[in-house]
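Record type: ASSEMBLY
Status: queued
Input:
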Amino acid sequence: MAIGVAVGLMSVPAAAGDFIIMQSTTSTQNSGLLDAILPLFTAKTRTEVRVVAVGTGQAIKNAANCDGDVLLVHAKDDEEAFVAEGGGVKRFDVMYNDFVIVGPQRDPAKIAGRDVERALRMIAEAEAPFASRGDESGTHKKERALWRDAGVDPVAASGAWYRETGSGMGATINIAVGMDAYTLADRATWIAHENKAGLRVLVEGDDRLFNQYGVILVSPERCPSVKAERGQAFIDWLLGEGQAAIAAYRVGGQQLFFPNAAGSM
Amino acid sequence: MHDLTNAFAETFGLLVSLDADLLEIVGLSLWVSGLAVLIAGLIGVPLGALVAIARFPGRWAIVVLLNAMMGLPPVVVGLAVYLLLSRAGPLGPLGILYTPTAMVIAQAILVLPIVAALSRQTIEDMKLEYEDQLRVFGMGPRGMVSTLIWDARYSLMTALLAGFGRAVAEVGAVIIVGGNINHVTRVMTTTIALETSKGNLAFAMALGLVLVTIVTAVNALVFSLRHTATRSAYA
Amino acid sequence: MLDRGNTSVAGRPIADLAFEEARPEVRPVVGQNIRIARDGRLLLDVDELVVSGSGMTVLMGPNGAGKSLLLRCLANLVAPDSGTITWGGCQPDRARAARLGFVFQRPVLLRRSARANIRHALRAAGVSRGEAAERADQALAAARLSHLSRMPARRLSGGEQQRLALARAMALRPECLFLDEPTVNLDPASVAAIEATIIAAGRSGTKVLFVTHDSAQARRIATDILFMHDGQILERGEAARFFDAPGTAAARAFLAGDLVGEPGPEHRVRTA
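Status: finished
Output:
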C-alpha cells in the first residue's frame, strides 16, 4: 500500500521525457566533465543521461544487476571481463588522462620527479603516510598494480603508514590533505579539486600512469530493461561528436581528458 | 572561517534569490522526507498504538525490537532497498530504482521504527490514564486506538518530527537508492556529500547550515503548535 | 430534568427509539463470592451483592474498607481472584458497558472541548452523529455548563471538571450509575450540584451506587446503605434505619466519627 501511494504521488515530479541511466565513476562527475558534455547530447537527442557516480567496482556491479543502460569506467581488465561474461555488448575506448602521485609540499620521502616504482618504494621505506582509496575503484585497482610492480606489499602496513580510506577520489584527497599523506589521484579530479591545501603533484608523466576510460552498452539480452537504442545512440555520440566536446573541456585552462576513440584520432 | 562566512552568504543569497537548482534540491529534500514521514506515520502510529494497548505473549519482544530498530543504519536500509528494487531484485520490474520513489521507500523504512516506538511509548503512557474510562464507555480496541491517537496528537507530532529530522539528515540510504542524479534524485545531503568530495568544503558547509536552518524552522513550527496545545491543556 | 417513561420515549426520534430498545440490560448487576487477596491479606470478601431497581444506595465505610475495589469489580474494571460478576444475567460485555455509568474520584477528561467529551462518549456508544451533538448540548444545559461548551475540558476548574464527567455519564442514559467518591476535595457549590443531579437520577429510574467515607454526605443522599469494613459488607438496609440503629460495633464507631479498625482504646481519641 505504502509503495502504491509513493509511486502514485511521486510519478508526477519524476516524469520528464526519455532518459538513460549511466553507471560511471566519481572522477568523470567530480571533474565536471559530464556536466559539461551531457547537455549537448540531451539538446540534440532529447534523451537525458542520468548519471550514478560511484567507484568503478560498484558501477560494474550495478550494471551487472541491470541497474543501468551504459557503463563509463576506467579499469580495462575488469571491463573486458564484464563483456566476456555477457554483461555488456562491446567495449570502446573513449578517452584517457593520467594518474599523478600527489603529496605534501615538504615531500618527506623525497619522491619528487622520480619514476613511479622508485617513488612508491621510497614512500614505503620512509613509512610516510599514504592514503589509498581502498574501495575497489579503477584508481584503487591501478594503485595496487603499481605497488605490485614496485615489489611492495603495502597492505601489510595497513593502519600504520598505509591508510585505506574506503572513499571516493575527492574524499581521499581531503583525507590526504588532513594527514599530510601521499596519494594516487586521477589528474582530472586533482585539477578540479578545490581543497588542495598543502598538497602538490610530485610524480607524473610516467607511461605506467596512463588512465584509459571505456564505454560499454549493458547487454539487452541479459537485461531486457536496457534501453539499447538510446544507449547505443549515446555511445555513438560519445565516440563521434562527443570527442571534440571532451577535448574542449578545460578547468583553469588545463585539458582534463584526452579523447582517443578509434577512428577519431 | 572567512571562507565559510562568504560561502554561507553566497549560498543563502542563492536561496533567497530563488536559485532554481538550489531550490530544486531543497524542495526535493523536503518532499522526499516529508512523504516518507507521512507514510511512516500512517503505518507507524497505528502500529505503535496497537502494541501499546494489546496484551499478547511476546509483546515485550516487539517493544525491544522496535526500540532497537530506531538505530537502523541508513546505509544498511539503503542497501536492503537497493537489493529489493534492483533490476536483478524481486521488485526490479517496477523500475523505480534511482527515482525519488525509491528514496521515499528507503526513508519510510528508516523512519518507521522511530515513529512506531515513540508512538507506543506516548500512547502507553496515556493509556494508563484513559483505560478505565474508555472501558466504561464500552470501547473496544479499535475505539481505544483511535481515541488515544487523537488525544495524543500533539505528542505524536514530536515523534513524527523526530522521524523527519532523521530522514532529512541522512545520506547513506538515499545516495544508494537514489544515485544522487542531478535534477532527479539530488537532495541536500547528497549534494553536501558530493561537494565535499569535490573539495568544495565551504559550499558544502554552507549547504549544511541551510539544512540545519530548515530543520530548525520545522521544529519551531511544531513547537509553537505544541505550545498552543499546552495552553489548552491538550498536550 | 431526566425524563424517562412513555411520554418522553414517544417524543424521541424513531432511530433513537430503535437504538434504546436494542440496548441490552445491565441490571441487575450481581456479584457472587467475590474474593481479592494481595500479599496474603484479604482485601475483598463479598458472598453476594445484587444491584437492581432504582434509587440511591450509598456504599460507605472507612478508608481501606474495600469500597472502591468492590465498585470497580462490579463495573468489570478489576477481575476478582475468584467469584463471578454478571450484568443482566450475562457475562459483562462491551454492549452492556455503555449502560453502566461510572464517575471516578478524579475525572478522566479527554483532551478535547467540554462538548466533544460528551459527544465522543455518545459516538462510542453507537449514537448517530447528529443525535450525539444534540444530546451533548442537552447534557451540558442540564449540568448548567453550556457556557463552557467550547472550552478545553482540562482547562475547567476541579468542580466543573467533575460536573462535566457526571454530565457525560448521564448523557449515556445509564441504567446504573456508579460514583467513586466523586466530591472529595470539591467546593461546596459543586458538591451540592453533583448531589442534586444524582438524587434526581435516582428518583427518575436510575440505580445509583455511590461510594463515600463521609457519613454526613451519606445521610444527605442515601435511600439505602451498604456498610463495608475490612473487605466485607457488614450491614445493608434502609438508610434511616441504619443511621438510627447501626447493627455492628464497627458501624457505630464509624458513625461516631471514630477511627474504625484501629484496635485498642489509645487510638480512639479523635472524635468529631
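Annotation: Residues 145 and 208 of chain A are 10 Å apart (CA to CA).
Annotation: Chain A has eleven helices and twelve strands.
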